[in-house]
């Protein structure tokens, strides 16, 4: 089985670009569409890194933040 070319940094960069352009944070299903065959660990780590960097900045159209409670 060939490993995926997608990494946690692919996830982070996609999420960052999407947030900067739209003010919205993509969900896991969108990430899986954009980054096919990504390893679940890499996906989870990339999402966690983005949430760590974004911190408590408000998400467009809501009163909630991007904080991740895992």
| Share of residues in strands | under 5%
So what's the overall shape? globular
The parts where pLDDT drops under 50 for at least 5 residues are none
Overall mean confidence score, pLDDT: 84
Comma- or semicolon-separated keywords:
mainly alpha, 3 helices, 53% helix, globular
Could you give the topology of this structure?
Layout: H1 8-22, H2 28-34, H3 40-54
Helix pairs in contact: 1-3
Question: Would you give an account of this structure?
Answer:
There is one protein chain. By secondary structure, this protein is mainly α. It has 3 helices and no strands. α1 packs across α3. The radius of gyration is 12 Å and the shape is globular. It starts with 7 loop residues before the first helix and ends in a 16-residue tail after the last helix. 10% of the residues are buried.
How would you briefly describe this protein structure?
This protein has 70 residues and is mainly α. Helix content is 53%, strand content 0%. The protein starts with 7 loop residues before the first helix and ends in a 16-residue tail after the last helix.
